[in-house]
Design a protein that fits this description.
The chain has 229 residues and is α/β, with parallel strands linked by helices. It contains nine helices and six strands. Helix 3 packs antiparallel against helix 4 (82-96).
């Protein structure tokens, strides 16, 4: 890793808490729709809707709530009362208004790396929401560049490398998602460190173990310091 010049950090569930709020909203949805369907049927139905809408809405809370509304209307056979529709909209606003909760060791890790490498944020999701979270996190001043992507794949990472004017061996990506943060950079020849988070969205899971000479897994974000020294 002695050639690394730039370190990219995923945001959601790498720098701050995120996925648990989606789970809480799903639990509220199940309670709202209890008169129409069992909880174990609602969540798969919602996930199916999200996957169908991915190419239209992309990622983020707003996209999620649109799929929640569509799922609720379908499950109720179009009989969902306006009061419940309003409740779902309020659930989305509440999730968007959540204060940023940094994960353990984030500030210490970034401060230890600051000045030694160019640190950047590489995340996906809603532009307005991610900009707001970064601003409220108190971390913005530590990052040289912020890249909010519509999706994370080999093509978008390749464009990022070109924008940064670096070769793959000079880039390290750090994140909690094997699908989005690890596999695409590795395919380009970059380095990648996986920092698992206890809760992960079904869409971000991969079936096969990752085996690559540029790949490492750590228990906490702080652990990457020892790998880089």
């Amino acid at each position: 890793m002695d050639k690394i010049k730039v370190i990219g950090f995923d945001a959601d569930d790498t720098l701050w808490v995120n996925e648990i709020y989606f789970r809480e909203t799903e639990e509220k949805l199940c309670r709202l729709l209890a008169p129409y369907r069992e909880a174990e049927q609602i969540i798969p139905e919602l996930y199916h809707t999200e996957m169908q809408n991915m190419h239209l809405y992309g990622y983020g809370i707003k996209a999620f709530i649109l799929s929640v509304l569509e799922t609720a209307i379908r499950i109720s056979d179009g009989k969902l009362p306006g009061t419940l529709i309003q409740e779902i909209i309020l659930m989305g606003k509440e999730q968007l208004s959540r204060p940023v909760e940094l994960l353990d060791g984030v500030e210490d890790t970034l401060n230890a790396l600051f000045g030694k490498y160019k640190l950047i944020v590489v995340t996906k999701g809603d532009l307005l929401d991610q900009e707001k979270k970064l601003r409220e996190s108190g971390l913005e001043h530590l990052f040289h560049h912020v890249e909010i992507m519509s999706n994370k794949n080999e093509g978008t990472y390749h464009k990022l490398l070109n924008h940064l004017d670096i070769i793959p061996e000079e880039f390290l990506m750090v994140g909690n998602s094997l699908r989005s943060d690890i596999l695409p950079p590795l395919a380009l020849g970059c380095h990648a460190i996986h920092v698992p988070y206890p809760i992960i969205w079904e869409h971000e899971k991969v079936d096969e173990p990752v085996i690559h000479p540029h790949f490492r897994t750590v228990d906490t974000l702080w652990d990457i310091i020892s790998l880089l020294n």
